[in-house]
Amino acid sequence: MTTVSPNQASAEAGGIDASARCPLGLLTAFALLWLVAGGVLAMLNLLQLQSPGLLADCSWFTYGRLQALQETILMYGWAVNAGLAAATWLLVRLSGENLRGANYLMAGTVFWNLAIVLGLTGIATGYATSHPLLQMPGYVQPVMLFAYAVMAVPGILAWTGRRKAQTYATQWYAVAALVLLPWFFSVAQVMLTFLPVRGTLQAVVATWYAQNFFSLWLAPIALAAVYYLLPKITGRVLHNYDFAIYGFWALLVFGPWMGGRQLIGGPVPAWIATVAIASSVLVLFHHFIVVVNVRDIFRLTGSTALFFVTVGIAAYLLGGLVDAVFATRALAMVTQFTYFQQAQQQLALGAFSMIIFGTIYYMGPRLAGAAWPSIALIRAHFLAVLIGFVLLVVSLGMAGWVQGRDLNNAAVTFATMSAHTRPWLQLAAAAHGVALIGNLLLTVHFFRLFFTRPAPVAFGQSAALEGSAS
Amino acid sequence: MKNGFIFFFGLFFVLALSWAGLVLGTNAQLGDLAPFYDDMEGKAFPERAPGIASRGQLVYQELGCAACHTQQVRRPDFGSDKARGWGERQSVARDYVHQKFPQLGQMRIGPDLADFGTRAARNGVSESALLADLYNGKNGMPGYRFLFEQRKLTGESSAKALSGGARAGYQLVPTPKAEALVAYLLSLKQTYEFAEARPYEPVAEAKGAH
Lengths: 470, 210
Known about the structure:
The structure holds two protein chains of two kinds.
Chain A: H1 6-50, H2 63-95, H3 102-124, H4 141-151, H5 153-160, H6 169-194, H7 201-234, H8 244-254, H9 270-282, H10 284-293, H11 304-325, H12 329-335, H13 339-368, H14 375-407, H15 414-451, H16 462-468
Chain B: H1 4-30, E1 36-38, E2 43-45, H2 51-63, H3 116-122, H4 127-136, E3 148-152, E4 170-174, H5 176-187, H6 203-208
Antiparallel strand pairs in B: 1-2, 3-4
């Protein structure tokens, strides 16, 4: 992308990374702590399905509340913190200037995470909204919106103050995610919490919001990282890059319409589901362009960081396909209202997480100015999350399929149904446990990287940094 | 994409388009949906639930009941909703016009509750039986004991007290939350035959068959 000599470029990048060290280190640290906390609660939540008595006497942790808690932690605690760190870093790197507005990011981060703590307390003590992905009570939602707007400032400044006028795919995706979230977040707040719309229209707004969170936030941020890391690590140019722009707009145009898949057969106009099914298929055009652009990633060369990204992008593509296929009414009749939908959600979140893990492994040593202390820990993390992620999605998917078939057979009672799904749910809980161990390793490793600084590498020695993660 | 303004406008436009289509589109269709006044019966349907039931809906919402129970019956030929006795017809938007926060739900770990009140009346499930289920748990649903309290017995025991489960000298009484929740569940009825809710039956096909 640049014509500057490698040494000069990396020396400049070193200065840029140093300017981002504190705010992005803080964001990532928060993200990782939430990831571990969310993993613990998610596992407990699955165990509750197998022994309903678990924590049932504790009003803070009924199945429904715990479900809302873990979802909120993973989406707003892990995904938003980590995604903002990645997006800001990518935009600052591509702007060619030092990070500006670091104080905004620091202050915003503190308020955002405080708001999450408040929101979680609210859910646990009886103020949950019961809208999927928007469970936090009304009194923290405006705080979160404000904190988010403040946190996004450095990223936007890096975009508007970039050195070169022409832009790169990473920048489109990252900027789109940064500016779109406040828009749909505020619309959802007004229409669901402060001036709730009438009747089942609420369900339409809620699914629109949830879909946007996936299609207009998680996916763009992950893709921004992929479009940056692949050419950067392999040193190869992306194939057919000219088409990337169509892939970008295809996601943005079709993505938001896909939410109605959840409402097939529900008490809303039938065209909502039909439009959603059509959009789920049309958005595959976006996936097609992405696969054409980044197909080199499947050659499996390069660093360990890139392995994470490879798994992530494979999961992202698979997720797109599964969403399209299982949106059709014949299959939705089985999978609707089952664990299968949770499997789809975990597939999307897992794809995002794997790509962000890869980004953290690439970004971490550059921010800290030191190499990762242990390559073995990175490999152990990779193995653990890979096994955990695949097991989790497969077991939830199977549990959902079994549950869906049973639900459609009126002769099967709920007791039988839970006996049928039990082994799969046990496997899913175990999968959460394996992934949790891996994520603990990453968290410990990350704190070691930032606090002990074993053998400082001079900025610019990118080969040494690279060596630690390859 | 050098032009930041066009890029920014494009982002706004695609999001606004989906919002206008899905939200405004649905609002145009359902926004002025009113209860249906039946001249024969001399009242409007769906009927308004009592105040305690609206409070119960908030309890249902904040306890996270929707994580396991849906409240939307699908049409008879789509899934086994009718065969399971969850409702004679599909739920339609008009069923929810009086509900402040409809709890459609997205998961069926337990049965659908859209028409629970009708079912309870048919099976003779009383309020106290339902309270006992809430305390003890049933069919894999755990008991929610924190919705009940042990109250010192002074004089006669409360009419709502559950039999058993209390220490000596105490009685086991549902909290207002539990009472509201049960009133809400018993108020859930989707029985009135709205024109738009008539079950789709492939009659024409059956007649045309040889």
